[in-house]
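Quick illustration, no need to memorize.
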Amino acid sequence: MKKQDKPFAFRGKYLLLTVLILYGVIFLVSSQSVQLALLKSGTILVKILPIFGVVILFTSLLNFFIRPKQIAKHLGQDSGTKGWLWALAAGVISHGPMYAWYSLLEDLRSHGMKDELIVVFFASRAIKIPLLPMMIGYFGLTFTILLSFYILLGALLQGLCMQLLQTKKM
């Protein structure tokens, strides 16, 4: 029997309603402020729409080419050390704003990715490969290697803490 997909749920309805009410109240007090805020919000929306498009495209391709069993094998409950290393590597090589990854990671989580690996992914994003040469120039190779090592170690420790919290929760 095939598992049914979860129904669509608009999860931000209360936040949206609150924001609309606040905008309405502020509009009554100072309509110029609301117009300026809406203009800035529109500008930001135009800037992030391409990012959302890429995330949606990437998620769609992921869903098309990779099956949940494949994901679970690499990042699921039985992934072992390999899953931790994949999460570290993916975090280091990932670029762009963090919120752009939320949708993809939620999708991976629904297919079996462990929460501790999501924590490792986010924590290891502190290392920015394009900025490493500049960091070496300012602080030296030894400092850069040690700091990167401690960032990765910290990411793993945060993942382990999440794992401990998950086991206590059950």
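The chain has a mean pLDDT of 84.
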